[in-house]
Fold Cyclic pyranopterin monophosphate synthase.
Amino acid sequence: MTHFTHLNEKGEAQMVDVTEKGHSSRVAIASGYVEMQPETLRMITHGEHKKGDVLAVARIAGIQAAKKTSELIPLCHPLMLTSVNVELEADGQNNAIRISATCKLSGQTGVEMEALTAVSVAALTIYDMCKAVDKNMVISAIQLEQKTGGKSGDWRRE
């Protein structure tokens, strides 16, 4: 049985060799929040930002980031994602934008890092576009919500 590890025989970091792993359908969902002042949330949701549609730009940034995860995170495998969906939802009760990213593929390794990267970059894009009007924004709770497929099976946050 092959042992999958990020360490080679010398104890040095390496990309995990997934040659022996079978292909399977894999899905990962991650989420996070950008908390902000009520006026900032209103500006975003009413399309009043001078820089344009903040949520549309953040959505595209998240999708692009998921596709480039292997260039950003050392030792991640370059993957042929079959689907990336980034959803942004205003949460007026908490003065936040909730971000959710779902990444899918059929392959030999999971897509958790791609989903987490999509959420992270979407959140950073919101921050970047709105920092001039609200430096108090907080990016928080970026986390994996669930994953399916692969050798380790399915997992869901409780």
